[in-house]
Amino acid sequence: MKGTLYIVGVGPGDPELMTLKAVRILERCGVWLAPAAKKDGESTALGIVEGVVARGDKEIITHHFPMKKVRMGQSPDPEVKEAWDAAAARIVGHLQAGRDVAFPTLGDPAIYSTGFYVCETLFALAPDLPVVIIPGVSAIGASAAAAGQPLCLGDDRLVVIPATFENGRLRETLEQFDSVVLMKVHRVMDRLVPLLTEMNLLDKAVLVERTSQNGQRIRRDLTTALHEQPHYFSTIIVRKT
Ligand SMILES: C[S@@+](CC[C@H](N)C(=O)[O-])C[C@H]1O[C@@H](n2cnc3c(N)ncnc32)[C@H](O)[C@@H]1O
Asked: From the CA of 233, how far away is ligand 1's center (Å)?
């Protein structure tokens, strides 16, 4: 019998934000393949899991996925593709030997997660292997909760975008929607703050850094981020209404 791959959303940081189902699946799987952003670095997702689930005698693989832009409809950077291929090959080996594998991923797997790229790569190798997705609490909802505000109410239109968009696309999106969630903001504050200022939206924006993690910080004055780059785990919510 073949094993199953579980792509498990583990929430934004606080292990208490993991679902009961995520905990149960992680306890049950004998193999965990956890993503790490840095070569030989630690996996944030694994750190979250270990706040609740003991390693025991599980096989734990930390797999490096380079953090490079992926554009839909375009071929990924060869280094990125290589990482997906290598992860999928490792997983296939375990599944074909009948072992269940858990792939813990930060937040929710459906939102900018490596888990789905690995899943697609896996299907290209072996289309019949069973994959189950376990949803998690996204940094989006968790950031709104930390800031004590809604994302959208009534007939508000909500959109989620990577802040790495060029300014023209960012402006267009900020004009069109009532509530805009900007992810991956940490390296682009020097152009985001002037854009929000120019659009008279600076006082509508909140920057949530490391939500639910040690070091959580809420900044309502985004100009502070011009001389103090926020952490990679930072999300901005711009709610106009
Ligand atoms: C690759 S995306 C992963 C999103 C994740 N799948 C989710 O559902 O939250 C990484 C981005 O998520 C946001 N993020 C992740 N964890 C966060 C946290 N604890 N606090 C604030 N933002 C976070 C940041 O914008 C970061 O650049």
From this structure: 5
**Could you tell me the CATH number of the domain that includes residue 46?**
3.40.1010.10
Specify the number of domains making up the chain.
2
Q: Is the pLDDT of residue 1 over 80?
A: no
Residues 72 and 110 in one domain: yes
Count other C-beta atoms under 10 Å from residue 5's C-beta. 27
Phi and psi for 189 in degrees, rounded to 5? Answer: -60, -30
CB atoms within 10 A of CB 85: 15
Q: Which domain holds residue 13?
A: 5-134
- Residue 208 alpha carbon, nearest atom of ligand 1: 21
156 in the same domain as 119? no
Unique residue bearing structure tokens 């940094």: 139
Residue 57 has pLDDT above 80, yes or no: yes
Residue 78 and residue 101 in one domain: yes
Instruction: Provide the 10 A C-beta neighbour count for residue 231.
Output: 12
Rounded to the nearest angstrom, the distance between the alpha carbon of 45 and the centre of ligand 1 is 11
CA-only gyration radius of the chain, Å: 19
Q: Where do we find the tokens 């490391």? A: 210
Note the pLDDT tens digit of each residue in 184-219: 999 999 999 999 999 999 999 999 999 999 999 999
Residues 90 and 109 in one domain: yes
Residues 120 and 20 in one domain: yes
35: left (phi over 0), alpha (psi -120 to 50) or beta: beta
